[in-house]
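Incident log, structure service

09:12 report received: a user says their structure output differs between two submissions of the same chain.
09:20 pulled the input from the user's history:
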Amino acid sequence: MVPEGLQYASIPDLVTKIKSIGMNAIRLTWAVEMVDNILDNGGDVEIKESFISIFGVNNGSRVYDAVMKNNPSFAPNITRLQVFDAIAAECAKQQVYVHLDNHVSKASWCCAGDDGNAWFGDKYFDVAKWKRALGYMAEHVSTNMYNERPIPRPWSINGRSQGKSWPNLVSMSLRNELRRPSDWKQWIFYNWSEWYDNMTAGAETIHKANPDLLIFFSGLKSDSQLRPIFTGSPVGLDQVFDMAELDYANKIVLEVHDYDADTTNCTQKQINLITNSFGVLDRSAPGTKTVFPLVMSEWGFSQSPDQYTAPYASCLRRFLPEQGVGWMTWALSGSYYVRSGVPDMDEPWGLLDHEWKDWRCHDCILKGLLPMVQATLDGGEQRKGTITHARYYAD
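09:34 re-ran on a clean worker, output below:
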């Protein structure tokens, strides 16, 4: 539950790396389990204790020592949430937005139907604790409760700060990649009605705790399906997604994920995206009843020269800037402290190399991602204020 990569690099260096190719935001993921620990066990856990609990005394201490060497501003007893605060502070210093993403309930690799995190009421997905955690994090970023020193506020968004503690935080997601759980007893509850009741309740929790934040709604099928939300199709008995009924209507942003690496036909790929999600941007699109801002909050591919020129990446590299939407790419991570029980596991999809020092695939960045970032920013200036509230890029 400690943000990744700090045993290899400092927070300032990583934020500078993101900025170097024009990216202007990070998607910072967190687990409900961290908040459960804080509220149920009398306070947060120091990162040294966290590393030792995962790796044992010797290896855990070595990882902790490496993190502290790379980040000398950390207090010896720094906690997990204080590391999140430090990341937000450095991003504010370098004028990078933060989007806070509730990725899972139990901290583990995501996302599968049998991981216990898939759907409301799943093995680890306690709905009451999820809503409690959303409220806690929304409140935390607006109260400065863990920071001894004020975070610098060199800039604001739309003329105001969105959070007292994290002035560069613009948004929170409700949940990452809702999906059908493997447990057959949960299948009956996997539907748009359950989605509507829980997601609107979660959004209300965030809005009450921090009314300035944009709130990201993900859809079904691992966040690839949004159509009922914007077409006025039923999301329950005599219920549609009606913005007029919601106090936070002007804070809603829809998010979509896409990993269709088998794409061979870009035209058909675009049709599918417009049908399932991107139709939300165009009132004239078939079936669209309500227009919402949209962000593609995950897409990505293995960082190798043959992949960035493949149809999938080439298609999205053109399509997303043309649509004028914000997007985030999975993932920045070059490696993980531990993933699926494997220490120091490599991430071939990571923009950075294993040791978080250099780009994993220079052509992928310089010939692929960098021009895409610039095209998105150029298009955003031309459409400013018409489609999305803000632009988001790095994960």
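09:41 both user submissions now match this output. Likely a transient worker issue. Closing.
09:42 reviewer note: DSSP finds 13 helices and nine strands in the chain. Residues 195 and 235 are 8 Å apart (CA to CA).
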